[in-house]
Design brief:
Radius of gyration: 16 Å
Helix content: 55-70%
Strand content: under 5%
Distance between the termini: 20 Å
Structural class: mainly alpha
Length: about 210
Amino acid sequence: MSSATPIHRAPDDPASRQALALAGVFQAASLVDELARNGHADQRPWETLMQATVDTSPPSFEAIYGGHPNNLRQGLELLEALVGRKQGSPVIMRYGFSLILLMSKLRKNPDMLDALGESLDRIQHQAAHFGATHENVIANLGETYQETLSTFKHRIVVQGDPTMLQSPMMPERVRACLLAGVRFALLWHQQGGRRWKLMFQRSALRRALDDLR
């Protein structure tokens, strides 16, 4: 998957871009749940999230998620269930909205934003050499999350199999995934996404999701 050669141009309308960014948030929430319960996550959505997190200067909007909406399909399906008021996993929903809350707190903390940006710039160089999903890169992403976002009073408590959560590299993978979720939450806000819109503009979001099928 190459973020430098998009194969599917992102839609220009704000609602569709917000839907794609929000799908990244809920894809991260879903993968956190999978990792915590089962110890593994599907390769395509995992690679999409990690590449998006380490690529701090993508050449285009669609390059962020690897050039095709199907790279965010897992998140898009969760979002469809949300706007359709279907029964979804309450744990995944809690993770997703907690990531949005963390993003809002991060935006109000310029010092942390600067520290996060500097750390991700260093990790980007490492990822260019080893690859976005290399253990060293994931370890540094996890450490970055722990030193920044996890210091907020509001912390995301991950539920799952205690044995799985304590296995080698699992805490780092979970934290890296949470960091990816905040990255997409920031993208969602940059595209005009707001929490109140999730309550009062469901029809616009639903139409955007229909167009992305």
